[in-house]
Amino acid sequence: MRARHPDVEGHVERDGVRLGFEVFGEGDRTILLLPTWTIVHSRFWKMQVPYLARHFRVVTYDGPGNGRSDRVTDPARYTADAYALDAGAVLQACGVKSAIVVGLSLGAAYGVRLATLRPELVSALVMIGPSIPLTPASPEREQTLQRFLQPPPEKPKGWHKYNLAYWHSNYPDFVEYFFSQCFSERHSTKAIEDAVGWGAETGPEILEAEALKSSPADPWPEIVGQLDCPTLVIHGTADRISPYARGVEAARLSGGTLLRMEASGHIPNVRDPVKVNLALRDFIERVA
Amino acid sequence: MRAIVPDVAATLVRDGVEIYYEVYENEGPTIVLIPPSPITHSRIFKGQIPFLARHFRVVTLDGRGNGGSGRPVGRERHTRTENVADILAVIDATGTHEAVLAAHCHANWWAVDIASGHPELVAGLVAIDPGVPYLGTPQPHWIESSETWDVVLDDPKGWQLFNRNVIVGDLRRWVSFFFDAQLVEAHSTKQFEDAVEWALGTTGEILADSEEAQELDPPSREEFYDQVHSLDVPVLVIHGDRDVCQRFDKGVDLAAATGGDILVIEDGGHLSLAREPVKVNLAIKQFVDINWGAEMRTETWTRGLGRPKNALYLSSPIGLGHVRRDLAIVEELRKLVPDLQVDWLAQDPVTRALESAGETIHPASEWLASESGHIVSEASGHDLHCFQALRRMDEILVANFMIFQEVVEEGNYDLIVGDEAWEVDHFWHENPELKRGSHVWMTDFVGFIPMPGGGGHEAFLTADYNAEMIEHIARFPRIRDRAIFVGNPDDIYPETFGPDLPKIRDWTEEHFDFSGYIPGFNPPTDDERAAIRHDLGFDQDEKVCIVTVGGSGVGQDLLEKVIASYPMAKEAVPELRMIAVAGPRIDPDTLPTHSGLEVHGYVDRLYRHLSVCDLAVVQGGLTTTMELTAAGRPFLYFPLRNHFEQNFHVRHRLGQYGAGTYMDYSATGPGALADAITGHLGNPVDYRPVETDGAARAARMIAELI
């Protein structure tokens, strides 16, 4: 059973793509919890919604490709700019003029893009484990990423599974591996099961479309440096997906506060939900 | 001793009146603390200033009529207008461009004037137990007593004392009644004494004038409503719901009218800032932080299972004794919990011993206000009224508690060990929601005992302090996860905590575990003793007498008295060699000299000297006397006059071991002292053995918590 059911469930259609959103609670301040990589959908915020909704209005939605949203295969729908437009459409549909925007991993990039393209919509921005290329990825990931479109090894191990052909041949194994890396903390069985389940609601053709998207024209450090709202960065030092150094850099470039989560992995909002919840509320009370 | 001294203490002259003000410099936002003079002055904020000054720039002043300010007479000199102009003059003189105002009682009326008349200066208002006109309802006793304000009453009683003739004729009577009525909280003796003392800094004439002045230039009801409703600054009201001066509904209405927040101190009276300093401090800081965006910073949080086991150890700096036993306990604790990290929150002179031992001293230690400095300032000659000294240490204890609390909140400590860390134990019981980690309370005595010279009042005070402690433990047993008595049940002083209170021994046996005594070292065997003597350069045929007064700096008089006896003793026993140790806080050069007499400053591992001497002359402190007992040395001990712990607790315990010779400082002249020295020098002793496993026992009790 869900701990908190939405007060409003709806869909918004933008340029022919339907996106499912949910609204919880009320209050004069609204928090928008953004989607992230479409391998999961908005349920990855399940540890935050019940708490935050007692204090604020909370809006979540599924990005294209998962959850209650259309399974689009057009790469143009997966750019950070497209996500920013989606988020703007959701906020408009909910009658929200401005929100505190929270993004995890790739979602942090979507939030940055929303805050730079539509600054009037974003009163403050929280980036959790930002997967924004402000510093290089780990050497192993860097190397395997370059082989993404090449044929995989016969029995790929580790990050070699991050490979388009392998996704199509053994998607479940890739998903399992990926989340084992996201949750580097011991005793993460339930977190991994949940995420694998959400991953099963989409498929390799969707991830392929997402992977083939184009990047923004401006370099990311420049974009992050343009942010003009209060920011909070939360980043785990044991993050195997996006190195901790990226969080430090995101905080520095945006002039924000950094919450360093020692020994936490890539998705602390699932694995260390209490600390993240309290940090979100504390930040919002201070700045918004 | 004050916990902090101002960077600027100055006066300005306005309207021919000197106005005293203080500035505590800091790069943070400015907060101006406004007392409701003339019934009190800036010292009413003594529980706030040391804490606030670590985070903000603090400006405060004594209002006209009290403290360091002038004493103008005549009610037209005490109007709202004049007081407001004084405050503005201080804001101007201190170069303050924008500030949060925090005011108590009727000073809020002035603060509201300033916030509405000079919004550019005011970034926020903290209204503590506010007294403002028209809002809420007045206390009925103010209305009734105002009717007889000018009347000469035959036998005024109760609130009738609010009367011009009474106040002018007997100010103490009125303010004693008034503050007794305000301090509705039990165990408020110290706050009461302070408030009365500060109130007596004005005169009855001035206080009566200031009461009448309120009628001279009040705003109309409409004007005042307009003022508060149009205030354009954040407001925090802090109000006790049992306030007998300014009814609680005034605070509620002020918060509503200004759109401000309110912190209700439930069950609290009119002096919340003095009676609940911790909560009030935290609320003020939170208010300023929220409204001025605390400086962006990096916070580190470590996952529970990613954390090393760690402990914060507090070792009382009063005397050098605690740290020796605490080091011994930590050594044992590390055997049981090898991966334990220990940080020490400590101050001089404890830090010297910790540094020699290679221990980790928490950097916040440097902010601590000096407890041993306070004790020195309280001592006079061979006299230290340590109960009153502890009471008068109240602002230092609050100041240091606030530092401690920040340290534990940031350090995620699993364990807090406080060896007579009074501030931790007391304020966690007073603010139980602030407790972090497991807490071990450790002490070597239980119960404040009145000195006979203090009479009935001192007996009342000690009983009240004991009763508060008993109530604390009964109400919040979860604050002390373990209470360790450093000693055995027989060591407990055989008395009660006071009239209608339990026997100290019964209560302590019920609420403490007993570690036995904890010497800081193992007493040497005969062979070791010979080796140490050789090491220290003591000849076999020398009779070595060590004179030491501990580390606190109290003891110059005893040193001088012993030194004066030296020539006579030396003449009687030529093989006498006397070594006087002044300790880290007494300059050896200030002591008289005799040929053959050796005088040293701080001596590391002094216990080695003591363990092999032929006689020691010491004060009545527990650590040193018990070290001598454990080592089986003859010694003369002189308890400090008025020091209840040395005169009752320690003396009783030494009696249990049959150890030492009690000496009365006043009754012993140099001649008698020389006789005592020669009479005991090198005498064999027959003490009950002191247990040597105390540190290990204490460590086992502590280790169970981690």
| N- and C-termini, Cα separation of chain A | 32 Å
In percent terms, what proportion of residues of chain A is strand? Answer: 15-25%
The rough form of chain B would be described as elongated
Number of DSSP-assigned strands of chain A? 8
Mean pLDDT of chain B: 94
pLDDT < 50 stretches of chain A = none
> Which two chains form the greatest contact, residue counts included?
A-B, 22 and 14 residues
Radius of gyration of chain A: 18 Å
Largest sheet of chain B: 8 strands, mixed
Roughly what percent helix of chain A?
A: 25-40%
Assign the structural class of chain A, choosing from mainly alpha, mainly beta, alpha/beta, alpha+beta, or little secondary structure. alpha/beta
Unreliable segments of 5+ consecutive residues of chain B: none
Round the mean pLDDT of chain A to the nearest integer and report it: 96
- Largest β sheet strand count, sense and barrel closure of chain A: 8 strands, mixed
Radius of gyration of chain B, rounded?
Answer: 29 Å
Q: State the end-to-end distance of chain B.
A: 37 Å
> Please, how many helices of chain A?
11
- Please state the oligomeric state of the protein chains shown: heterodimer
Percent in helix of chain B:
40-55%
Structural class determined from secondary elements of chain B = alpha/beta
Trace the largest sheet of chain B across and list its strands. 1-2-4-3-5-6-7-8
Provide the fold topology.
The complex is a heterodimer of chains A (288) and B (706).
Chain A: E1 8-14, E2 17-24, E3 30-33, H1 49-53, E4 57-61, H2 80-93, E5 99-104, H3 106-117, E6 122-128, H4 139-146, H5 164-182, H6 189-199, H7 204-211, H8 220-225, E7 231-236, H9 244-254, E8 257-262, H10 268-271, H11 273-287
Parallel strand pairs in A: 3-4, 3-5, 5-6, 6-7, 7-8
Antiparallel strand pairs in A: 1-2, 2-4
Helix pairs in contact in A: 2-3, 5-6
Chain B: E1 8-14, E2 17-24, E3 30-34, H1 49-55, E4 57-61, H2 80-93, E5 99-104, H3 107-117, E6 122-128, H4 140-147, H5 164-169, H6 171-182, H7 189-199, H8 204-213, H9 221-229, E7 235-240, H10 248-258, E8 261-265, H11 272-275, H12 277-291, E9 298-302, E10 310-315, H13 321-336, E11 341-345, H14 350-356, E12 360-361, H15 371-378, H16 386-391, H17 394-411, E13 415-419, H18 422-430, E14 438-443, H19 455-475, E15 482-485, H20 504-511, E16 513-514, H21 526-536, E17 543-548, H22 556-572, E18 576-581, E19 598-600, H23 606-612, E20 615-619, H24 622-631, E21 635-638, H25 644-657, E22 661-662, H26 670-680, H27 694-703
Parallel strand pairs in B: 3-4, 3-5, 5-6, 6-7, 7-8, 10-11, 10-13, 11-12, 13-14, 14-15, 15-16, 17-18, 17-20, 18-19, 20-21, 21-22
Antiparallel strand pairs in B: 1-2, 2-4
Helix pairs in contact in B: 2-3, 6-7, 13-27, 17-18, 21-23, 22-26, 23-24, 24-25
